[in-house]
Amino acid sequence: MARESILTWMRSLGEKGRFDELELLIQNTPIEKLKETLKSTMTRSEGITYWNYLLRGFNPDSKDALAKRFECVRSFMDGLSSTELSYKQTFDLITRLSQDLATFPSEQLAWIVEHCMDGIRQGDAKCVGWKDLLPDALSLLLARPRFLLNGISIDGTEFRDTTVRSIATMQWPASILTPIADMFKSMNLSSAEIVTVLNKFSGALQELSPMELPALCFQLFSMCSTASQLIIPLLALEKYFHRNYYKRLFSDMCSNSTNLDSIDLFSDKELREAEETILHHLNYCTMYKLTEKHLAIMLRNFLHMPDVILTPFMLSAIISMTSINRDPESTRISHSILLPFLRNVIKNNEEERTLADYSVWYRDTLQRKQVDLQQVFMVLIDQNKDGKDVITPGLVHLVFYLLKSQSPKMHALAITFLTKFIRKRFIFGQGIIKLISEWMIVYQDQNQFSECLTLLSVADTYTVSECIKPIQSVLEHMQWLSGEQSMRMMNFILPLLKISNRVRDALIDVLCKAMSSSGIQKRRMAIYGFCMILKQLNNSNAVRQTSSATSFCTQHSISGYSIMTQNTLGSRSNPQRNFDMLTLEIIGMLRNCLQQQFDIRYSLYENLQRAVELNAKLVPHVLQVIDWHFRSFFDTPSAEDAGDDLDTVFRIRYDQLVSSSGDQHMEIQLKDNLGKLIQFVANCLAIFDRAPSGYDTREMNRLMSFCVDRMVANRLPLEEITPPATHLKCALVLQQLNIIEGIICHLLLKSKPQNNAVCQILPLFNQHSKLLESLKALSDASKKAYKHLKQTAKNNSTSTCNLTMNGVPVKTMCTQPDNIWDLAILDMLLHLLLDDVVAFAAPEKTVLLRSNEPLVRYVLSVTASRVESIRLEPDYKQLAYSKRTFKQLTYITKVIYERCIQRLPELWKNFDMQSAALATQCFSECLKTAHETYSKKFEDFVKSFDMASIKGSRNKEVVYTIQDVLDDFMTEYGTDDSICKNEFVSKLPVYLLESLEILLDHIDYQDRAATESYTWLLHFCSKNEILNSEMGLVHRMLFVQRQKTHLGPFFDSVARQLGHVLGVQNEDAPSDSVELSLKSISTVTVESCLQHLYAAVQKQLNDVDYFVTKANNLNYKCQVVPEIDQIYWRGNLDSMDRSICTQIIHISRTLLVLTNVCIPLGSLMDGLMKLLIQHYTCLKSLTKHYISSYTSDTSMENIRSTKFELLLRGVGKQLPANIYELITYIEANTLDEEAQQHTKKRKVQAERAKVLRETRLIPKVIMVIEDFNKHIILLSKKTKSKNRLTDYLHLGTMRDFDIKSTDLRAAIERSISDGRNISTEDSNADDQEDEDENENVEEDDEAQSTTYPEDLEEQENESLVVEKKEERRRRRAPSSEEEDPQPKRKRGRKAAEQLEAEDEEEEEEEVEEVQSETTSKLRRNKKVEPKTKRSVAKATKEPEEQPSHESRTTKRSKAQAEKQAAEPAEEDLCVPEVPAEKKKKQPGRRLGIPRTVRK
Question: What's the CA gap between 133 and 98, in Å, rounded?
Fold first, then answer.
């Protein structure tokens, strides 16, 4: 029968449904013919038809048919491997075979599986039919009973597991990775198998090309069912893209040149397209499978690993899986879980960047550089610029999360990102600005939103100006918000005024409404807004908005044309016509402020002066308005009616400045500040003189000259200011002081080398000094006068005594004078007084000024206060971005540094110590202001006055200059009593140290000056004994620089030296020789040094605790990375663990010494206890890390290699022993202080409060020690080694804290009712019962003790030694603070004398309270380590102390007093006699600083 006839016949029978005849045909046809026909038809279109009817024709009930079918299947499988078929043909053929697999015997199915595995080994990408056949065959075998395979009986489950394991361990050809992943996806793999397979793929995909990645990643993402599985391929992809793309990209961004000759394996375009496709697949595969909560639970294991999360790919992957990225319109930002996680990771990264600059141990342990988030954001912005917006919504909302946080660093990152993002993707600008403007209105207490909008407005003015609706909304809200908030919101609108007339006119409309408001804050806001408009007004942006239907506001609707505007409007030839018109309109509205309250006028002068200084074209128009107002304060004939000599009538109208109501002048109305007005006019005239045109200023100059001449000649009549003091006189003195200051401003601004203006400053200052003395006399008299008035008002009910100023109550008549000089005037004064040559005055005319000590002191003092006030300015002024203020600050710092600081020894020797101290204060304030306000520009700030930064300069750097000045000062005044008694001598080194601390804070750790500064600080502290307690901050600087530049032990030596000053508890304790000798640590500085030491150790503990958490994250990463990377990351983990253990060893040694020091009770002791709690908490976290990180097989070797065993061996027993002795020391000293007080003078409540305050942290310390011991026991059980870790522990005895309340209540009631009738026999019987009960408790404790048998003998031996030392156990503790006068709870021993009897009910309540407290306290003390001396003494002297306990619990009982009196006889019987030698040693113990000396 021919081949075609067989094929035709089979198709005919199959199509007609005659399957019996088809079975008969196939049964009669030879197998070779069927195989030949199958091989020839596989590549043709009818191949699937033949294959279908061929399989349909085999009878599954016949063994011969099954054998024949299997031969055909084997031929078919061989044909698939040797014949090239299309994917559709292969899929159809395999699918048809899969339908009949259930009828195949197990042996045949096993052969099919083996054949499929051979196909995988061959790695032919064109023959991948096995990927669809193998999963079905394995699933069928899984349900089959046991069968024979190669003569071995095996069941389906075992065969399936063996097959999967075999596939996972074989070498996969790179060409068939995607089909293999598709095959695994079809299998029902267990979680462990999925992790194994994913790890295998993670290592294999590193060799693929970018075009092969998306398909494989889709299969891998589909295979992942949990977030912990998904992270495995994500980490592998992050490694792939970093190695092939981002590493080279970041390198190019950090370098100035790009290697254009390099030949890369893949192009950037291919890699970017593959990454975008993978992110799309990731979003699709996880959309309905994994929620943000599942992802966040997994990703929290990387919270402290910013280098893993904050990479471009990983950041994009996480953002792509957020719901707000998938649906930004309907999802609320507050519902996201992953975005807060990313914000926390970014926060940790920024903290790492900061902490790494201050700790060399932190840098060494970090093992890498921190992530530069600005670079990452720049890469993401550039990728979005290409139009690939896969993560754009989520990325922008992540930045919103940063902006809404409470960290200024997060705000800076967000603002920088948005500034760059809007420039490149301006299409998103309107939506971003709309949201930020809404938040600015809602969150009025947060300044970052207005700051962000302001910087966006400056960076991309055109984009922001197009956001008309948000701007309109902000302008509408400005009308009802507070004035300060409105001024803060206004700053982002001001840059838009240069290009948008509509915005300008709308703002003017809002300001006009605010100007007519009744609130002062609203009107001040209007003044600020108008002056800001004037500041940047010019002819190009002053064009009027035409009245049309499109404009929502015009200037015609703002106000009608004034006379001045109409005059300007008629002059068509004026080139500044538009500028003059709008300026005159605004100034015309501001003119109304000159008739309003004092605050409004003062604000007008201040803001108009700033506008005039920045826009000189305003001067003629401003002078035109201010002229008549200025003249109104002076009473003098006109220039035509009188001459200009000294006899001309000239008087200041003080009634227009200050007025009062009533005979006693208690209510003062301030109307204006003439000094501020004179200063404003002087600035306007100085600017006008540069281009004198547009207005006649002769009359204003004449009035100014009259003021100067009359004041210098002392011919200007002043108001009566002699005592008796009144509120009016004090206000007049302040006005006169400001007038003189304003006149000095005028003289400085008009001074030239040709005139004598500066010569008149000194007489004016003398008048100023006399007024200050008069004010001081009035201040002293005003206190008595005000006291007398209050007494009169108290006696006379009809009179009142309320001091008010402008309706606001004030506390005193005489307030401190407020100088009106600004930074520009102070800069000129400093140059005039300190420089040898100035440009605006002749040298011979400045000699008297520079030699006048009071003038120099006053100017330096005012400069310091003015510079300090910069830091206190409100947010809306935005001085941090003011170039003008920064420039003035640098000028002032430069002249102070060059003329004072560099020559400071000469200044205090040849001039004046007070001036030298004020100069250092001024320099310190300048550095503080620059540090806080201009922290980003601090390096430029230092370069502006430190000439050593210039190349080729031989000058010393400012740091070395200050160090040399301090050395000279200590050489001259270090041992002088004036350093702690003289106000200015004591302040000068403190200001220098504060300045040096700020400068060192900004020096990079890699700079040579950082290491040399530490060396100098160490030498300074070793050489100089400090007598001034305020200079103790040098220890803080020393400790900070030590951690910044050096590793190794240091603070334990400092603690030993503190012990030499304060005394030690146990002099027999082994201690190394004191390597460090700091003379600066003395009784004067010991308290501050101890606090700074606490801060340094606390910082170290915080760093260690952070790295323990980081080590946990790294351990998790070791579990999810491929096997080829596990060795590398495990090595990093071991290195980190070693570094952590080394650091904790150093910390433990420091605490070991500190716990032996006699630290004063109070805040200093509390600080030590808190450190101990934090230390043991950190140790517990480290132990938990070891429990979770290491298996029982290799854990002991790893623990030894990471120095954890060395840590336990060094401090496991010594530190707890010291702590238990410290606890006894605290309790003993607390009780000893109470025993010294007489019974009648004791305040029980105060004593109780004191005891609770000084012992409140003891239970917490014991709890954390025992918690740490518990975890060490768990770790020891896990290691299962012969050398148990618990052998290194100082284990305590577990005590029972449960109190039987019924028995306790019955005992208390019995002691109250029968107290007066208790006999001595009953008392002895009770004592015997208590002894029996204590013995039972001790037996139970021995049964429950966790102490090992070998330790029991040591405890018995130690108890004997401790008992001998009990006599010299208690000692007086120095106290760090005096007791407060308020009642405090305190407990103490029973005094010898009894208090008088009180009411019976109060007695019962108090007895019950004290009994419960004492019982719980004794129970708690039992939990303390039994090796302590206190517990041993209690065991040996129980007959002695039990009656004492009874006496304390029943204070007011007469019978208990009798029992107390009987105690000495019992003590004589119970206590063994102490040898004479030991009695002599007792007073020889070193004592700490007494409470009386401390203060």
Answer: 7
Q: Are 659 and 669 in contact (CB under 8 A)?
A: yes
Separation CA 1227–CA 1250 (nearest Å): 11
pLDDT in tens, 1183-1230: 999 888 876 555 566 677 778 888 888 788 889 989 988 988 888 887
1383-1435 pLDDT, tens digit each = 333 333 333 334 344 444 444 444 444 444 444 443 444 333 434 333 333 33
Helix orientation angle between 227-241 and 292-299, rounded to the nearest 10 degrees: 70
Report H helices in 571-673: 577-591, 598-614, 619-631
User: What's the CA gap between 235 and 252, in Å, rounded?
Assistant: 24
Tokens of 31: 């197998």
Closest CA to 426 of 384, 395, 455, 394: 384
Using the structure block, give the residue that is written with the tokens 């054998």. 67
Whole-structure pTM value: 0.81
Token pair in block for residue 246: 């981002």
How many CB atoms sit inside 10 A of residue 1134's CB? 15
Tell me how far apart the alpha carbons of residues 837 and 847 are, in angstroms, rounded to a whole number: 10
Q: Residues near 1284 by Cβ (< 8 Å), separated by ≥ 6? A: 1276
- Residue 366 C-beta-side C-alpha neighbours within 13 Å: 24
Residue (of 969, 999, 1000) closest to 986 by Cα position? 969
Helix (H) or strand (E) holding 995: helix 983-1001
Contacts of 912 (CB under 8 A, 6+ apart): 853, 856, 857
Tokens read off for 1261: 């310390």
Single-letter code of the amino acid located at 592 = N
Residue 1246, CB half-sphere, CA atoms under 13 Å: how many? 12
Distance CA 1380, CA 1162 (A): 12
Contacts of 677 (CB under 8 A, 6+ apart): 605, 626, 629, 630, 633, 742
C-alpha span between 600 and 620 (Å, rounded): 22
The amino acid that residue 1223 corresponds to is: I
User: Are the CB atoms for 1191 and 1399 separated by under 8 Å?
Assistant: no
Cα 953 to Cα 957: distance, rounded to the nearest angstrom = 10
Residues 729, 750: Cα–Cα separation, whole Å = 32
b/e per residue, 107-141, with b = 16+ CB within 10 A? Answer: ebbbbbbebbbebbeebeeebbbbbbbbbbbbebb
How do 634-635 and 152-154 pair as beta strands? unpaired
